[in-house]
TrEMBL record:
It is found in: Cytoplasm. Residues 3-350 form the Isopropylmalate dehydrogenase-like domain. This is 3-isopropylmalate dehydrogenase. PROSITE patterns: IDH_IMDH. It is an enzyme of class 1 (oxidoreductase). Binds 1 Mg(2+) or Mn(2+) ion per subunit. The gene is leuB. HAMAP family: LeuB_type1 (MF_01033). Its main location: cytoplasm. GO terms for biological process: L-leucine biosynthetic process. One of its GO terms (cellular component) is cytosol.
């Protein structure tokens, strides 16, 4: 029996994760895979119920599951709270508590959506990028941090810090991923200014010696942001620290047409967590407008990386391709003049395509 911890979260989280859950349940049924999905609270929903963005029961649920599926957290109603009392802290504590140091964010092009990208089709048609983002270190977790008062002026401070072990383990993930792809790693840093990332560059270079079949390139983050738009097809694996990867993966999502298409897997030595890269989209929450495909594609990553069900991961991706072939579009991926459907209908279309594929 596989146990899945299910955290819908806030904003569009419950809508997109309901669609993804239905896909997962359909797979469990069609594959006759015994599965128990247990729901828990994280983020603003947990703050409202328990005054804690990650109640102990939720952490325990995640720790005892085979995999975690998460929607998204956050929203304006919690923005004024002190840092530890924000929904985002629940997500960060979950990542840290499960030691999910490797965040894989594939930005791949669905040819049906070439027209949805803000870039010209010839620039994006050959794009296939895997962002490998370190997820449990960097300025997100470094101490000291805070806001204090110095000489009568308020001062905010954070600490960007990585030790070589943290860099080494994420670098190995990137090189191994590259070996199964086009054998190129571009490591992103700001080694011309920041000591933390100077060490990053040194350690990544050391690790690269163990992978002579993979070409390593270093790029400053400002240039990488520019190159992602100028010539995105040059990238294979993009290896980044926590903050640069957060920013560059949102940027990379636009190559595919929408942030609503980018799935992710967060991996460590144990169970994995699966979530779209986007947030809770408060501007469209509760309106049946959000694109659930990023979360549905995250379920495919769960089947591949945590449940050893490669074939069903492929089938979900095939089903997504089919609904796009059939012209189903949520608003974010629709071109002018194309008919638009809602979150629920998109989820149902994927389930129908899965069932049709299994019956064939
Ligand atoms: P966001 O990703 O929520 O939204 C940015 C824009 O993209 C919005 O216009 C939104 O409508 C659109 N968008 C996002 N997902 C979409 C989808 N599936 N379909 C269609 N459109 C989609 O980022 P934001 O507005 O900067 O943040 C909103 C809240 O989400 C904040 O509280 C933030 O902290 C939180 N957040 C959470 C996560 C997470 O849970 N992993 C990630 C990012 C942001
Ligand atoms: C993401 C989000 C999170 C991050 C926030 C909500 C903590 O932006 O998953 O990309 O910065 O990692
Ligand atoms: Mn982000």
């Amino acid at each position: 029996m596989k146990k899945i911890a299910f955290f819908p979260g806030d904003g569009i989280g419950p809508e997109i994760s309901a669609a993804a859950r239905a896909v997962l349940e359909t797979v469990a049924e069609l594959a006759a895979m015994p599965m128990q999905i247990e729901e828990g609270l994280v983020g603003g929903a947990a703050l409202d119920a328990h005054d804690d963005p990650l109640p102990e029961a939720s952490l325990q649920l995640a720790k005892t599951a085979d995999a975690v599926l998460l929607g998204a957290v956050g929203g304006p109603q919690w923005d004024a709270r002190p840092p530890a009392q924000r929904p985002e802290q629940g997500l960060l504590r979950l990542r840290k508590g499960l030691d999910l140091y490797a965040n894989l964010r594939p930005a791949q092009i669905f040819p049906q959506l070439l027209a949805a990208s803000p870039l010209r089709p010839e620039l994006v048609q050959d794009v296939d990028i895997l962002v490998v983002r370190e997820l449990t270190g960097d300025i997100y977790f470094g101490q000291p941090r805070g806001i204090d008062v110095v000489d009568g002026k308020r001062r905010g401070f954070n600490t960007m810090v990585y030790d070589e072990g943290e860099i080494r383990r994420i670098a190995h993930i990137a090189f191994r991923a590259a070996q199964g792809r086009r054998r190129k790693v571009c490591s992103v840093d700001k080694a011309n200014v920041l000591e933390t990332t100077r060490l990053w560059r040194e350690v990544v270079t050391e690790v690269a010696r163990e992978y002579p079949d993979v070409a390593l390139e270093h790029m400053y983050v400002d240039n990488a942001a520019m190159q992602l738009i100028r010539y995105p097809a040059q990238f294979d694996v993009l290896l980044t620290g926590n903050m640069f990867g957060d920013i560059l993966s949102d940027e990379a999502s636009q190559l595919t047409g929408s942030i609503g298409m980018l799935a992710s897997a967060s991996l460590g030595e144990g169970r994995g967590m699966y979530e779209p890269i986007h947030g809770s989209a408060p501007d469209i929450a509760g309106q049946d407008k959000a694109n659930p495909l990023a979360t549905i594609l995250s379920v495919a990553m769960m089947l591949r990386h945590s449940l050893q069900q490669e074939e069903w991961a492929d089938r979900i991706e095939t089903a997504v391709n089919q609904v796009l072939d059939q012209g189903y579009r949520t608003a974010d991926i629709a071109s002018p003049g194309e008919a638009v459907i809602g979150t629920r209908s998109m989820g149902e279309a994927v389930v129908a395509a899965l069932r049709a594929g299994a019956a064939a």
